[in-house]
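Appendix B. Chain record.
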Amino acid sequence: MAHRIKNLLEMINMPDEGILSIPIEDTDYYKVVLFLMPAGQYLSPHTSTMPATVYVLQGKADFTLGEDKYEVNAGDHFFMPPNYNHAILAKEDFVFLLNLNRAASS
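Structure tokens predicted for this chain:
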């Protein structure tokens, strides 16, 4: 397998509105997606069948995990178990990397 080295910071081109998702990797074992959310954008509560980690690259957001709300900032990293309710409100232009673990959900 050839190594694919990508500079995520060079991929950031914030949209004027809406949420932009950029697939980074997609294999039988995991899926990695870069999300870009302009300030004020809201991603309503939802779940995923796969466990996931989030790494915040830029900005600030209110991230609701279950019943709790957290202010997350660039550099923050956290885990979400499968079927865990979560939502996001971008307080500033917000960029994060989502890593979904397909192998753990099978």
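Further analysis of this model is presented in Appendix C.
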